[in-house]
Amino acid sequence: MSPRERNLLLFFAAAGFLVLNLLGFGFVKSKRAELERKLVVAEQDLARAESFQANAEEVADEMQWLTEHEPAPVARQDAETELQQLCAAEANNAGLTVKKQQFLPADETEGRHYHRAKMQLNVAGREEALYRWLDQINDPAKLRSATQLLLKPDAKDDTLIDCTATIDQWFVPATE
Asked: Tens of pLDDT along 11-22?
């Protein structure tokens, strides 16, 4: 082999080595960037998991209470009917007069575990009877609450109170 051929062969070998190093460096650089992104995502997931674990420990008692008081699944119409019957019966038991009842649009957001039936009642009666009725209606163990109250003195009789109350009942929807 002549010195000229040998120099040409060394030149091609050096050029090939240089091209392979540049390609390898680009490949290693892209892999390193990918691994760094995965590391950042893994660190964020770890921080989120630690946060969830800390929150779970804080609300463990509440979660335990909720599992003990989980209501049986019911259809929306059944939940509304039971709520209406309970509110009217308790108002009569407390000595209140039910002037008006109406169902409000239920909160049935898809994907939520609990849905909410709403009812608005307009009742009239004495103050202590109204408080007795509200005491019977508000029952956290049954996931029921009076969420809005509007109290006004009766226009004809100062000893009576008109109350417009929105009663919410949370329920687990029945699966179809």
From this structure: 889 988 888 888
